[in-house]
What does this fold into?
Amino acid sequence: MEVLPQLIIESLLLGGFYSFMAIGFSLIWGVLGILNLAYGSYIILGAYLGLILFRYAGLDPILSIPVSLFAGFLFGVLVQKLIFNRAMKLEPFMVLIMSFGLDVLISNALNLVFKADVRSITVSYGGDSFIVGDVIIAKVKLLVFVLSLLLALLLYLFLSRTWTGRAIRAVALDREGATLVGIDPAKIFLITAGIGTAVSFSSGNLYGILQGFTPFDGGLLTVKVFLISILGGLGRIESALAGGFLLAFIEVISSFYLGEGWKLFVALVVMVAVLIFKPRGLLGSKYYGET
Amino acid sequence: MSLLVIEDIHKSFGGNKVLRGVSFSVEKGEILGIVGPNGSGKTTLINILSGVIKPDGGVVVFKGKDITGWRAYRRAKLGIGRTYQITRLFTNLTAFENVMIPLHYGAGEKTSVRRIEEILETVGLSHKIHSYASDLSLAQRKRLELARALALRPELLLLDEVFAGLNPVAVQEIVSLIGKLREELGITVVIVEHVLKALSQLADRVLVLAEGKVIFSGKYEDMVRDKEVIKAYLGERYGETA
Amino acid sequence: MAKLNWLVLGTILLLYALPPLLSGYWERVLSSVFMLTSLTYAQNVLLGYTGYPAFGAIAFFGLGGYTTAVLMIKVGIPFGISLILGGMVSGLVALLIAPPLMRLKSHYFAITTLALQIALAELSANIEITGGAYGINLPIYKGFLGTTIFYYLFLSVLLLSFLTNLFIERSKFGYALKAIREDEVAAESSGVNTVLFKSVSFGIMALITGLVGGVYAYWITYIDPESMFDLLLSVKMFVALLFGGVGTVAGPFIGAFSLELVSELVWSEFIEFHGVVLGAIIVLVILLLPGGILKSRG
Amino acid sequence: MRNLLLFLTLLIGFSFSAEVLKLGAAVSFTGKYAKEGDLLKKGYELWKDTVNAKGGIKVGDKTYKVEIIYYDDQSNPNRAAKLVEKLITEDKVKFILGPYGSSQVFAAAGAVEKYDALMVQGGGAASKIYKQGYKKVFGVFNVAPDYGKNLIELATSFKNPAPKTVAIIYEKTIFAEDAAKGALEEAKKKGLKVVLFESYPKGVQDLSSLMIKVKSKKPDIVIGAGHFKDSVLVIKQLKQFKINPKFVGLTVGPPIPSFVKELGKDAEYIFGPVQWSRAFKYKDPLFGSTEGYIKAFKEKYGEEPEYHAAGGTAAAMSLQYALEKAGSLKVEEVRKALLSMKLETFYGIIGFDETGKIVTKKMAVIQIQNGKPRTVYPFQEVKPVYPKPEWK
It folds into this structure.
C-alpha cells in the first residue's frame, strides 16, 4: 500500500477541522488581546450541548450547529461582560491565568453534571468510508472537513463583507485608529467574544461527531488552537487555515515516521522555534499589542 | 579627533527606509541640534547611536572605537547617556534608586547618598530624593531622566525631544541646565528637537534630516534661510511647530 | 514592610522546632505548604523582581526531580549529591535557554515557557532513561529522622528561597532586576547588561524550582511525567503569588500559606465541588485582588 | 459553653464508637480517574453495607460495625499520599482500602509502609507495585501483563485458520505499556510474528497515522492496550480504515457497558480480558455466590457490577477475612493471615505471594456478542466467534 497519498489526505481532513476550531481563539486573541486558556473547555461545552440536543431532542448534530452558534454567542458575550471586561486593563498574563481558572471551573462543573464518562455523538452515517484508489476516506471526517470549511467561508465573508466584520478587523489592526473613525471598541469586543465562542461551540459539535469526549479534554484542545495560532499568525481567517493545515501535517507526518508519541513534542518544538525566530507567525500577520 | 563619527548609516523597518546613508561627526564639547519633520528618522538615529537598535549598514565610532555592534549597556559604560522622547523612568522606584542604578552599573562608582544627592542637586531635584518616579510632574520626570543619564558620567549626552510638552518656563530652565552641563562638566550634547526656539539658544550647529538624509548642516541662522530646508518643512503638513 | 519580613524569617526558624509536635499528616501538609511557598518565592524572583511570568516554571520542577531520580536510581549517586546536581542542571539549562527565550515578553513569554513544560513532559514520556510512561520508583527513605527529613529539606529550601528574595530586595543585584522589570530599554541604557541579569534571574528561579522538584521526587517515591509536569501546580503557584503580593518579600509566604492551608482545611468538606471552587478562587483572586494582599509599589 | 457541649457529644460518640472499626480510602472523585474512583467506591460501599447488615466483622470475641472514611485524592498522587497519611495519623485508621490508579497506589504505599498500617487495594495493576519491596501492600488485581497474555493465549488457541502475525499498539501509560509487554512476550513464546509494536500518547484524539501503519502490515491479530477512550477510538478507526484482522482484542473497554453504547454494532466480536466476569462460578462466604453478588449489586445500584467495583469489594473482603482469621487488629497478625489466605469468593480464589500480589486468581476473556459481553475463556458462557467477520 502506498502510504503517502493517504497521509496527505489525512492531514487535509484533519487540517480543515483544526483550522475552523482555531478561528475563534485566534480572533479573540487578535482582537481583544486575550489568550483564552478556557477555549478548549468552550469546545467541550459545545460538544455536550450537541450531545444533549442529539440524545434528548433527537436533533442531528449538523442541524444543531445553528443552535450551538447561537448559544455560543450568548455565552461568549455573557462571559465577556461578567468576567473578561473587568480584567482587560490588567497585565495580559494575569488574564491568561484567570482564563485558566475559568477552564478549571468549566471542566469541573461539566464533571459534576456529566461525570467523567466518555460520551460521543454517534451518527448513523458516521462509520463508513469511501475508497478512492488506494486511499480511504472516512465519511465522518469528510463531513466534518466540508462543514468546517463551509463555516470558515461564511465567517470570512462576514469579516470582509459586512460593516461589523470590517470594524472587527479595524480594531484588530489598530485599536486607537478604529476609535478615531467612530468604532466603539467595547461593542466590538463583545461581538468578537461572542463570535469566537460561537465558533468554539460549533466546533465542539463537530468534535463530538469525530470522537468521544470527557469533561477534561479541553486542555489538549487549547494547546492545539494555541499551536495553530502561533504557527499561522493571528487575526485573519487565512492565518488560522495556514496554521491548522500546518499543524495537521506536522502531526500526521511526525506520528507516522517518528511514532505517535512524538507528535505533540515535534509540534511544540516547531512552535517555540517560530515564536523565537519568527514571532509574527509564518504568514507574518500582526499580533495585536506588539510594539 | 572627533568624539563621535557616524558614516553612511542605513536603517529600514519592514520595507520602509527610514535612514538612507546618514554621515556626520560631533566634536568634543559641541552642542549639536538635529531637526527634521516627523518621520525623518531623528529618533531612529538616536536609537542607533545609543545602541537600542542596530543599523542595517554603516559605522558608529565613539572615542576612536568602532562601537557599531555594541549593545546599549556597553555604550552606557563607555560614556553615552540618553533621555527618551517619552520618559522611560523606573516608575516604581524612587528618584534616589533611579540615579543609583546607572551610577553603580554604568559609571561603576560607589553609590554614596552624598553622590546621589549631588547629581539630583545638579538637575534641581534633591528635594525629591525619596519620591517615587511615578509621583513626579512631567518636568520633574524629564529632569530625573537627565539625572539618570548624568549618573553615567557621560561624555556624550543624547537628548530626544527633551522639551516636548513642557511650558516655556520649564523649557527655559532646562535650556540653562544643559548650557551649564556643557560649561561645568564639558559634556558633549546631541539634541533632537521639535522646539526650534530652544535650539536657537543652545546649538552650536544644526543638522536637518529629511527623508532619511542630512540635507543641511550649519549654523541655526543659516538653516532658517536654507531653501532645501524650507522646502522640506513646507512640503510637509506638520511643518514647524516652534 | 521590613518588620513583616523579619516576622516571616522568625516564623520560618520557629518551624524548625515544630516536628515533634506534629502528626504525620500535618507534617505532610506543612511540607506541601513549604513546597508551594518555595516555588512561589522562586517565581517571585522572576516575575516579582524581573517582570517575566514563567507560566511553565514547573518545567524545572520536573527537570530537577527527574535529574535527581535518574542520578540516584540509574547512576547510583547518593541523594544529597543528586539533589544538588538536579538543582544545578535545572539552573544551567535555564541559563542556556534564557537569552533567546527572554526576547519574548508578557504572555508570549508565559506561554512559551508553558510549551517548554509540555514538551519536557512529552519528552520524558518518550525516552528510556526517564522510564517513559512507567516513571521511576524511588526507595522509601528510612534513614536519619525518617520521613521527617523531608519536612526539614523542604523547610530549608524555603529558607534558602526566602533569603534569596530578601537579598534581591536589598542588594545592588536586585536593583538590576528591578530596573529590568520597570523598563528594560532604560535599564540597558543605564549600563545594566539586561540579557545577563534576566538570564541569571531565570536561572535562580530554575535552580530553586529544580531543588524543590528533587526533594519532591524522593518524598513522593514515585514520579511520572504527569505528576512532575503538573500544570495545576504552576497555576497554584501563580495564584499564591498574585494573592500574596508580587514583588514583595513577605507576599509569597503569606499567599502560599493561606492558599494551601485554607484549601487543605476547606476542601475536604467539598469533595465534589472543590474543582469548581478552585476555578472560582483563581478567577476571583485576579478580578478582586490584582495587586495582592501586600502591594509592592505601583 | 457550646464548645463544651460539642466536646461532650464527641466524647460520648467516641465511647460508643468502640464498637466501630474505621477503615479509610482516598479515592478519586474528581480528575481523570473520577469514573473508576466512583466504581471503586460502589464496590467498597456494597461490601460495607452487606457486612454491617450481617452484624459486622468478628475479630476475636468482639464484633465491629464497619465505617469507611473517604477522601478525594483528585487523581493526584501527592494528595493520595497526604490523605492516606491523614487517615492513619489523624483519623487513626490502620487499615486502608486502596485508591484507583497505579501512581496513586505507589504514593499511598509510601505512607502506609511508614506506619503501623496495612493496605489492600483493587485499583492498581502495574506489575511494578510488587517490585518495590512493600511489606504491607496487597493487591487483588491480576497484574497488567496478564491482560495481554490472556488475549494472546486465547487467540493462539484458534486453529481455523491459525493466526500468524500480530500488531500490538498501546497507550503510553504505566498500565497499558505493562499489558502490551505481556502480550508481546506471550506472542513471542507462541511463535507469532510481531509486525508492529508501537505506542501512542495518553489523551490521543486521532490515530490515523498509526492506523495507516497497521493497515500496511495486514496483521491477523490486533491487540490494543489502553484505557476506555482510546479503545473506542481504536475500533472506530480500524473500521474507518477498513482494517479487518481475524482477532481484535482490547485490554480495557469491551466489558464496560458504555463500550457497546458508544460503538453499537462495531463493538461486536471484540475480545477483552477481565479481572472478573459475571460468568464466574464461585461460592462466596458473604454473598453466597458470584450470582448472589451480582444480585446484591443490582439491588443497591440498579446496574450490573463490572470488575472495578468487584475489585473493590474483593479487596475489602480479603481484609475482612484476614481480620477474622487473625482474630486481632494487630497489623502484623493481619498481614500473616493475608499471606496464608486461600479464600474462595465471588471474585475467584484469593491468595497472595510474599510481595502481596494475588496469584491464585484467573482472569477471563469476554467477547461482545449481540451487544453483550459474554465470557468465552476460561469459563465458556458462549462459544467464541472466530475469525471476526469484516466491518459492516
Notes: Residues 89-153 of chain B form one domain. Chain B has a mean pLDDT of 88. Chains B and D do not touch (no CB pair under 8 Å). The first strand of chain B starts at residue 4 and ends at 13.
